[in-house]
Amino acid sequence: MNERIYTRTFLLMWPFIIAIALILYFVSDIDIAYSFVLGGVSSLLAMSYHYRGISRTMKNNPEKIKFVTITNYLTRYLFYTLILFIAYLKEDFSLTFVFLGLISFKFVMMANILLSRKVGDLE
Question: What is the value of pTM for the model shown?
Fold first, then answer.
């Protein structure tokens, strides 16, 4: 994966989360917006942890990349499970919008890849 795609996706996530949260706030209510923000920020934090761990391992200890990748995926999905469980326990949050926030990084990354291919920026 092109490193610039990840970097650009991280930069695009904040405006995306804010824009969608504002739309949800005005269209529905504040709890739905908070739910999406919780999922989106959690996704951003988890992907940042994953990206930094993989990058550091590739530079310092490339032979351990498989172990670090598996560990990062397990940690990330356990974190997602914890966030969804907390949202389930707290009645103010909407599980659907927390989940949509959690997968928003993937949507932004796919849009970023498609736009980069269209522009010819992807190598």
Answer: 0.86
So what's the pLDDT on residue 1?
Answer: 52
Per-residue pLDDT, 3: 75
Q: Say how many C-beta atoms besides its own lie within 10 A of residue 94's C-beta.
A: 22
Q: How large is the average pLDDT for residues 44-63?
A: 86
DSSP state of 52: H
Q: What is the 3-class SS of 68-95, one letter each residue?
A: HHHHHHHHHHHHHHHHHHHHHHCCCCCH
Task: Give the whole-angstrom CA distance, residue 102 versus residue 7.
Answer: 18
Here the tokens at position 45 are 């934090």
Q: What is the DSSP letter of 62?
A: G
Is there a contact between 39 and 83 (Cβ–Cβ < 8 Å)? yes
